[in-house]
Design goal:
By secondary structure, the protein is an all-alpha fold. 80% of the residues lie in helices and 0% in strands. Helix 1 packs across helix 2. The longest helix has 36 residues, at 47-82. The two termini are 28 Å apart.
């Protein structure tokens, strides 16, 4: 049970961080008069580590989604059983 809580915490944290990075890039481009921004992903050789982080984020995000869906289904079953 503790492992599920850690997965949920890591999953939602990584998804939130990814969302905030996306918002930052979007707002930076939006505030630019040309509505563009150049994103370089290997300025200091970080592309491989960013790819790894992206994969880890996707894995934890999917695991988080599965756990949440299972919890909703279990809760729905409990509600139906009580009727």
């Amino acid at each position: 049970m503790i492992m599920k809580q850690y997965i949920k915490l890591i999953g939602i944290t990584l998804l939130l961080a990814t969302f905030l990075a996306f918002v930052y890039v979007f707002l930076t481009a939006y505030s630019n008069p040309s509505k563009t921004v150049l994103v370089t992903i290997n300025t200091i050789g970080e592309a491989n580590s960013e790819l790894l982080l992206l994969i880890i984020t996707a894995i934890f995000g999917i695991m988080y989604l599965i756990i949440i869906v299972n919890e909703v289904v279990e809760e729905d079953k409990k509600c139906q059983d009580q009727k």
